Every structure is written in C-alpha cells, then in structure tokens.
C-alpha cells in the first residue's frame, strides 16, 4: 500500500515558540510542523524540551510567545482538554495514565468520551438513541481491542496487567478518540524486544491504514530511525536538526549533542 | 435429521441439516466480544458459495487444497465446500513453522491454500518457490495484508464467496450437480499425522471412513442437536475433524470457535459445552492451576476445599457410576456439591458437561479421578488417525484410569505378539504417496498395526503399556518401558515432561522438564528468586523437589517385580523446555525420544559416565523461525533406589 504524505497545510505547526518557567527557558524559538499522514520523531537528551513541546501541542502549557496553528488556522496554545480532543488530537503518556481499577475495555471506552453526544436523562433511561450510541461506541472499542490483539485481557483490571500490555491499552484509549494527530510519549519505554516489535507494527498500521498523523518522542534510536519519516532533534530547548533519519544520523551537531561520538573505522 | 441413507457424504449431511435443522445454530464465533451465530441453512448457503468460488480459482475434482489456521467457522466451511466439488482438504497444524507446512503442501501437491491470517500467508510466501502447483492463497482475516498487493494469487475469502454467489445466480443447479457427483468412497480428507518418528504421513480417509464410526459414537453417547462443543484443538488433528465436523454434521450440534487461543478458558466458561474433548495435558494443567490458586486462598476456604475434596474422593466416583453409597455420605456429597463442586465445575467451564473424553496419552489416575469425583463424566477412548479415531471406548459407568475401554462398536480388535491391531469401516485407505509405509502398517488379513503394546484385562478392557518398539531392556535383561516410567513421572504436579533412557544401558536415567507454573509458585512462596525457566530449573531446592518426586516413582516401580530393576538412578533437569518448534515434541506434544537423545547426546553420556554436571548449548527456534541458543551448566544428581518395602506415593 502506498502512503502519501499530505502537502497542504500542516496538521499542526508551531512557529517561533518560546516557553519559560520563571528563569528557565524550556523552549527557545522553536518552529516545527507535521504534514498529514507523516511520522515525525522528536529526539533529544533529557530536559531538551521534548515533553514541553508535547504539552504545547496538547494545550496544557501557554507559550510565552509564538504561534500555534491547527490545519493552517491559528489557535490558542492553551486549550481545555476537551477542546484539544475535538481538534482530533490524542496522546499517550510517558508514565502510563490509565485507571488501574478499571478493565482494559472500560479504559478504552473512556477514550470515546469526547465523541459521545447525549444527555444524562436519555442515558439513564437507556432510551433507544442513547442505547444505539452506546452500542456503536462499544463496537469501535472492540475493533480497537481486536486491532491491538488484547481480547484476552478485555475484562482484566489494567492495574493487574504487565507493563507492556498497559502501554498497549493506553494506545488503545488514545485510538478510541479517533484522532487525526496522535502524540506518543515514549511508547517503547521499558519494553522488551518482542513488545517493541509489536508496538512498532501497531503504530505503523495506525499510520498507514487509518492515515493518522504521528508525532513520537522516543529514546530507542533503532525504532526512531526505522519508523519515522523525519526526525527533529532538540537540545537545551532548541531545535538543532530536522531532517530525514539518514541525514540526522550523519549530522555532526546531532552526534555531538546526542548520538555520541562516532568512531571512524 | 441425518438418519437418511442418502446422507453419506459431508455435503449431503449438510444439505440434510439445512432441511431439518435450518434455524438451529450450527457454528458460533466470538468476534468483537460478541458471539455471532450461523444457522444450518446459513452455513449451507455459505458453503455453496465457497464451493463454486473455489472451483473458479481452478480447484478441480481430485485436487488437494490446504487449510491452515485456528478454529474458525469459515475454515470449517472450507472443508465441506472443497469436498462438495470433489477436492480434498489437507489441514495443516497452524503453529507449524514454514518448513513443516512446506513439506505437507509439497507432498500433497496442494492447488490452493485457505488460511486464516497474515501469519500463515507469510509462511506460505516464504516457501512458495517450492510449491509450483500452488495457484492461490485465500485468507479469511485481511488484517495486515493491505501491503501485500504485489503478491500474486492472494485473495480474500469474502471475494471468493462473492464470485461463488455470482456463479450460483447464473446456474442455480450447478452446486447440487457437483454434490451429486460425490461418492461416499471418495477421499474426504488427507490428515497428516505428526508422528513421533520421521516425516509426517498423509492418512487417506473416505467419507464413509469418517462418517460411519462418528455416527456410531453419536449413538453411543446419545449426542443430539442440542449439544454444544468448543472447537479449540488443532483442525489438522483427526479428533477435531471427527468432533467439530463429522459429529457436528451427524448430530447437528453447534460448534463454538473461541475468540483467540489466549481466550479459550474464558470462552469455555461462556459457552459451557455439554460434550468436551481434551488431551490429558489440559486436564493436568487445569488441576495444577486450580491447586496453585487454592494454596494461595484464605485458610477457611482452603479447609473447606480440602474437607469436601476428601468427601468427593471417597464417594464421588461411586455416585457418578450409580453405585450404592450410604445416605449420610450421599448427603455430605450433596452439600459439597452445593458449596464446592458445582461452583468449581462452573469456574472450570465444565458446568454443563454430559460427556467428556480424554485420549492420546495416558492420564494420571489422580487427575482422572479428581474430575470424575467432582461429577464430571470424564471417560477415555483409544484411537488413531488410521482408524478415524475410534478403536476402544469407555461406557458411562465403566470409566477407569488405567484402561482405555472396550472395543468400539463395529471395530474388531486383537492382540498379536503384544501389539494391538484393529480393523473396521473406519480404517484408512493408505498413506498418500507412500505405499511402503501403507504396506508396513497393515497385516495380510487386513488389520492395522497400531505399534502399541497392550492387553485386554478380565473385564474386556484394553490396557496400553507402551509403544511396542519402545519397550526395551537394560543390559541385565530387566524390562524397560520408557513411556510407562515417563507417565508415572509426569503424573507428578512438579514435572511437566520426562524422558527416560535405559534401553541397552546398565541403568535407567531420566531428563525432566519442571512445570513452570507449579514449581514457580512453589518457589515464590519460599522466597526463592529466579529469572525464568532456565534459572529456576538449576536451583538446588528444585532439584531436591524433583528428586523427591522420582523417589515416589521408584517406590511405585519397586512394587512391580518386572519393573523393579528399572528404577531411576540418575536424573537431570533440562535447562530449556522441550518444544515442538525444535522438533523435540510432536505437534500433539508427545516426546520424541530419539530426537532428544541426539540433540542432548552430551547430556545422555554425562548421565551414564558418572559426571555431576555438564555444559550444554541448545539451539532454539522462535515462533517466527529465527534461531538462538541457550547455554547452561546442567547438574546431574543421583537417586537412591526405593527400599524393598515401598511406601505409597
């Protein structure tokens, strides 16, 4: 199957963003954009500003200056979570943020929240329309369960699941919102090789089959170089490179800042 | 229903069911968390469309076609659809590596392959250059195959059915004409036996071979269209063919397909089958995990459990067999049933069982009695692919742990030079493209040699001792029956697999695979840290545990004058689990003693040269075909022989 990266306006674009906490400058003059159906990786050492960048895109932080655009339109950098969700942006977190006492299925269903349109009354009375809607949401959740190959843990409280499985459920919840743009914060952290391979496959499928645009922060360079179209490298709050994986690998500034010294053979 | 003499092929049985049981459920599958049902008339229609669709792919009368995947309704229908146009289904074990599938498909010369998903498609693509006759790969699950558009002949089953629908519209009599051309003496399937030695052999079975014994078995246990089964055992295995296709079509009962191999236990509970088959290993695993859970339960529950288990042990089997039991004990059992047995049966998913069978290996007497004492009608049968399963069978009140029952109706069984031999209408037509093997398997007067050594007891029940060719002798002439010893070892909860050596040696020794779940839990409760199987297997405490188990087996052997000399003197715990992917077990999980003897030659020598440890590297094959090695130092321990006066285990 051929995947075409969209040309038109970027799904999300940050232009000359500055972000400071008191005297600490978390982001300095950062511009970065992601095209429809593109896979963009963000890399950089700890404290380079990767998570700050995610928090700007997902509307949690207010930028000190600069412009945030969504599909070409300017939007406020800070937005309420449901407003961000309605823009079609969903994310996963570095430290899993699920409801540990709830089943995998229920956790995924919470991801549908922004898509549910109904009143408390019709819901409580299980009126026909509310019921049909509930059934439709459940069906979507089941499709995700099937896609992520987790039917065996459907009814298991996620707190009891192994870490790799929880990561999968969290991805499921993000997918449940049917996002156009998916932000993945270290999706491979703490996983073994097999779990990483599975996760890569799911991420690629989401992107290639459903056409979801991806931005991922990831430390595993093998994964980053394998699956991304473009890599943006951050260091001390600045973007120091933004290019195809192969070019980034050869970039001397990047090597010095992050990848480590290259040994000539 | 299926009583009509005309219903003598599978497509005709299907037509009869569509007429008489049209609205009854025939197949169910859990999809998206919900059980979806197809009625007999819906199945008949699906099969008709698939049949014409397959033919349009170039599948002709007499052609072979492969079926590979987990138990799925569409794959079951593909069997009948192919048979309807006179083609011969060749199911392959779905967990086979590409090489094994290539062997079967090449040997059978399959024209098309109907497979479940991307995993199987990948295997076929990998070996496709060896299969010049393979024209099309048909898949049921399109997931992940979106990127395969350049693969030639890859087609969605739904598209095949659609083509068939079109053909049926143009000529509505076409399908019936095809079905009418089928003869009961046509080959209905080629089932490759996994075989404990050498390459798999293709067993040719006709419609009559498969239908007639299955019909008698349906009568034997009074199975009806209201029974339910869960289809979870490999489709390539003759048992699944007989239960999930033959008997399902004859009795008209519903076959339920689990959502995925990982959800079988949940699905078992939801369906609550009334007719159930499982190899001994599954009952053993159920019992082990139950006991592990009970060990961790609260004290009150544990006391209650062990008290009522005692009651069940004393009278449960007698009550099930309809024998006289005094009223007080009957009352105790009734209370136990209310508090423990019924909830337990329900948890295990065995709450509605009327008839359950186990076969394929010897079952531990304790395991067997445990399930029967809970009121589950578990019985044994003895069979082979070459017999279309049935050779001997236990009737309801005659279930015993140490026999495999009386001769099955319509079968003749005899013992010749210790070997069990049989004949009847289930007897296969030969091994496909292997006349030598066919000739070797038959006697001149038409009996099939089973290769099993056994005898009939006074009650007319068959007892199987061992594989005839495996029964050997130690150098001092003592009888050595390795499987008999291995089974005794495996009946112990700590031991998952055992391989005994001793033929033409001066003593009996064995290799052990511990049961990771049971021993792991035991270790955890004692604060013994371990990182995985290999690490756990080499702990001194674990060796002590295994030695204790072997001592009990030795005590048992010591009671039998003929086997007293074949007690285990030395043993080791293997550093890796024996695996079918490495060729150490068959796909039905039987130990391949010769392969293991070769793979672990160093260890076998170390057992007999008195060394107390040995360094080994074992090659392992992962599910995706990649290889790796596990290296370890394996300790070898001595076991003392049981004192002449043995204590019961």
Molecular structure report:
- By secondary structure, chain A is of the alpha/beta class.
- Chain A folds into 2 domains: 1-86 and 181-192 and 213-265, Rossmann fold (3-Layer(aba) Sandwich), CATH 3.40.50.300; 89-178, P-loop containing nucleotide triphosphate hydrolases (Rossmann fold, 3-Layer(aba) Sandwich), CATH 3.40.50.300.
- Chain A is 37% helix and 23% strand.
- Chain A has helices at residues 50-57, 81-86, 104-110, 120-124, 128-147, 163-176, 193-210, 221-227, 245-250, 252-259; strands at 12-21, 24-34, 39-43, 65-70, 73-75, 89-92, 181-185, 213-217, 230-235, 238-243.
- In chain A, the strands form 2 sheets. Chain A has a 6-stranded mixed sheet, sandwiched between helices.
- In chain A, a hairpin with a 2-residue loop joins β9 and β10.
- In chain A, α3 (104-110) packs parallel to α6 (163-176).
- Chain A starts with 11 loop residues before the first strand and ends in a 6-residue tail after the last helix.
- The mean pLDDT of chain A is 89.
- Chain B has 649 residues and is an alpha/beta fold.
- Among the domains of chain B are: 10-27 and 38-207, Rossmann fold; 472-638, GMP Synthetase, Chain A, domain 3.
- Chain B is built from 21 helices and 28 strands.
- Chain B has a 5-stranded parallel sheet, with helices on both faces. Chain B has a 5-stranded mixed sheet with strand order 12-13-14-15-16.
- Residues 1-5 and 645-649 of chain B have low confidence and may be disordered.
- At the A-B interface, α5 and α7 of A face loops of B.
How many individual helices of chain A? 10
Q: Which stretches of chain B of 5+ consecutive residues score pLDDT under 50?
A: 1-5, 645-649
Q: Order of strands side by side in the largest beta sheet of chain B?
A: 4-3-5-6-7
Task: Count the DSSP helices of chain B.
Answer: 21
- CATH fold node name of the domain at 10-27 and 38-207 in chain B: Rossmann fold
Which two chains touch over the largest interface? A-B, 18 and 14 residues
Instruction: Tell me the CATH architecture of the largest domain in chain A.
Output: 3-Layer(aba) Sandwich
Computed Rg of chain A: 19 Å
Q: Which sequence of strands runs across the widest sheet of chain A?
A: 6-7-8-3-9-10
**SSE string of chain A, helix = H, strand = E?**
EEEHEEHEHHHHEHEHEEHH
**Helicity level of chain B, as a percent range?**
25-40%
CATH superfamily heading of the largest domain in chain A = P-loop containing nucleotide triphosphate hydrolases
Shape of chain A: globular
Number of strands of chain B: 28
Q: Which overall shape of chain B is indicated by the principal axes computed on the Cα atoms? A: globular
């Amino acid at each position: 199957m051929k995947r075409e990266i969209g040309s038109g306006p970027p799904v999300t674009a940050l232009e000359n963003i500055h972000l400071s906490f008191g005297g600490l400058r978390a982001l300095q003059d950062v511009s970065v954009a992601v095209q429809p159906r593109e896979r963009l990786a963000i890399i950089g050492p700890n404290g380079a500003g990767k998570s700050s960048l995610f928090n700007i895109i997902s509307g949690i932080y207010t930028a000190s200056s600069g412009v945030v655009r969504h599909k070409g339109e300017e939007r406020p950098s800070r937005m309420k979570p449901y407003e961000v969700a309605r823009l079609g942006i969903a994310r996963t977190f570095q430290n899993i943020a699920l409801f540990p006492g709830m089943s995998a299925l229920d956790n995924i269903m919470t991801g549908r929240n922004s898509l549910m349109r109904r009143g408390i009354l019709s819901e409580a009375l299980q009126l026909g329309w509310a019921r049909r809607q509930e059934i439709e949401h459940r069906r979507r959740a089941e499709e995700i369960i099937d896609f992520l190959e987790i039917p065996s843990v459907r009814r298991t409280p996620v707190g009891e699941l192994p870490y790799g499985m929880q990561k999968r459920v969290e991805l499921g919840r993000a997918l449940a919102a049917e996002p156009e743009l998916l932000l993945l914060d270290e999706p491979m952290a703490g996983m073994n090789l097999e779990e990483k391979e599975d996760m890569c496959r799911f991420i690629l499928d989401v992107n290639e089959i459903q056409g979801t645009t991806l931005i991922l922060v990831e430390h595993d360079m093998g994964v980053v170089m394998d699956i991304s179209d473009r890599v943006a490298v951050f260091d001390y709050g600045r973007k120091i490179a933004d290019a195809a994986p192969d070019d980034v690998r050869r970039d001397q500034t990047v090597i010095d800042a992050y990848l480590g010294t290259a040994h000539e053979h | 229903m299926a009583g009509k003499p005309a219903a003598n092929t599978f497509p005709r049985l299907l037509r009869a069911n569509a007429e008489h049981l049209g609205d009854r459920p025939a197949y169910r599958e859990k999809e998206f968390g919900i059980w979806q049902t197809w009625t007999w008339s819906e199945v008949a229609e699906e099969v008709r469309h698939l049949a014409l669709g397959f033919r349009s792919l170039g599948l002709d009368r007499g052609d072979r076609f492969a079926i590979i995947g987990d138990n799925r309704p569409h794959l079951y229908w593909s069997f009948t659809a192919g048979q309807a146009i006179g083609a011969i289904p060749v199911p392959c074990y779905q967990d086979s590596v590409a090489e094994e599938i290539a062997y079967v498909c090449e040997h059978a010369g399959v024209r098309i392959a109907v497979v479940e998903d991307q995993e199987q498609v990948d295997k076929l693509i990998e070996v496709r250059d060896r299969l010049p006759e393979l024209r099309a790969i048909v898949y049921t699950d399109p997931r992940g195959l979106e990127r395969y558009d350049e693969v030639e002949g890859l087609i969605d089953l739904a598209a095949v059915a659609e083509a068939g629908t079109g053909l049926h519209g143009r000529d509505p009599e076409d399908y019936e004409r095809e079905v009418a051309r089928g003869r009961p003496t046509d080959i209905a399937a080629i089932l490759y036996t996994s075989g404990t030695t050498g390459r798999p052999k293709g067993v040719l079975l006709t419609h009559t071979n498969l239908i007639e014994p299955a019909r008698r078995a349906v009568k034997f246990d009074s199975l009806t269209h209201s029974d339910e089964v869960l289809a979870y055992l490999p489709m390539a295995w003759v048992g699944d063919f007989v239960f999930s296709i033959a008997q399902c079509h004859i009795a008209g009962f519903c076959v339920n397909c689990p959502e995925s191999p990982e959800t079988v236990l949940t699905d078992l509970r939801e369906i609550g089958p009334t007719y159930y088959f499982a190899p001994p290993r599954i009952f053993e695993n159920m019992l082990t995990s139950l006991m592990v859970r009970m060990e961790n339960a609260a004290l009150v529950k544990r006391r209650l459990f062990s008290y009522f288990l005692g009651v069940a042990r004393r009278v449960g089997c007698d009550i099930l067999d309809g024998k006289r039991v005094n009223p007080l004990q009957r009352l105790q059992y009734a209370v136990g049933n209310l508090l423990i047995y019924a909830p337990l049966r329900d948890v295990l998913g065995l709450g509605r069982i009327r008839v359950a069978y186990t076969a394929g290996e010897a079952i531990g007497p304790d395991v067997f009695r445990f399930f029967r004492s809970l009121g589950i009608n578990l019985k044994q049968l003895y069979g082979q692919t070459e017999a279309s399963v049935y050779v001997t069978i236990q009737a309801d009140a005659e279930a015993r742990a140490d026999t495999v029952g009386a001769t099955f109706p319509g079968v003749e069984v005899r013992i010749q030079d210790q070997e069990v031999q049989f004949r009847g209408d289930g007897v296969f037509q030969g091994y496909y493209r292997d006349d030598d093997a066919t000739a070797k398997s038959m006697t001149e007067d038409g009996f099939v040699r089973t290769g099993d050594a056994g005898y009939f007891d006074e009650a007319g029940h068959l007892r199987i001792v061992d594989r005839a060719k495996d029964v050997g002798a130690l150098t001092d002439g003592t009888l050595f029956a390795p499987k008999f010893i291995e089974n005794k070892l495996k009946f112990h909860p700590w031991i998952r697999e055992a391989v005994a050596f001793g033929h033409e040696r001066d003593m009996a020794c064995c290799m052990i695979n511990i049961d990771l779940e049971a021993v792991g839990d035991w270790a955890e409760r004692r604060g013994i840290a371990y990182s995985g199987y290999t690490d756990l297997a080499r702990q001194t405490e674990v060796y002590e545990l295994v030695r204790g188990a072997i001592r009990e087996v030795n005590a048992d052997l010591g009671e039998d004058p003929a086997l007293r000399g074949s007690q285990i003197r030395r043993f080791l715990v293997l550093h890796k689990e024996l695996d079918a992917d490495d060729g150490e077990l068959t796909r039905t999980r039987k130990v391949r003693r010769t392969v293991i003897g070769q793979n672990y030659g160093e260890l076998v020598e170390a057992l007999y040269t008195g060394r107390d440890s040995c360094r080994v590297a074992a090659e392992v094959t992962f599910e995706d075909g990649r290889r790796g090695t596990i290296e370890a130092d394996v300790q070898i321990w001595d076991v003392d022989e049981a004192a002449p006066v043995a204590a019961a285990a």
